[in-house]
Amino acid sequence: MRLAVDPRLRRQGIGAALWTTLRAELDERSAKVACLWTDDGTACRDFIVGRGFMEVVRSYEQVVALATAPLPFAAAEDAVASRGIRIETLSELQIRDGHESLRRVHALYTASRVDQATLAA
Hints:
Helices cover 43% and strands 0% of the residues. With 121 residues, it is mainly alpha-helical. The relative contact order is 0.07.
């Protein structure tokens, strides 16, 4: 579940109301762990720390701006291809595999995260 408050509407009690309702549900279910994610440097961090949460795991996303990224060198493409790896866009996958492509992309994403630290580690 992803909940957020529009930054223009923060500090009006909306997040607190969401948390109060969610906390009651967690208590009713005897939840042992509740995880929240926030971006660094936002008001969200202070909000969740103020409600008793502490940082356990920090993760980073790496994003490439494809419109301005340098094109890969032919040698790099050949090296990847020689290992049996094929790079395709989601659009290409959807044309070939239809809705099954989304399941396959999710499975690949999940498999690629197997060695990442988790709360259970």
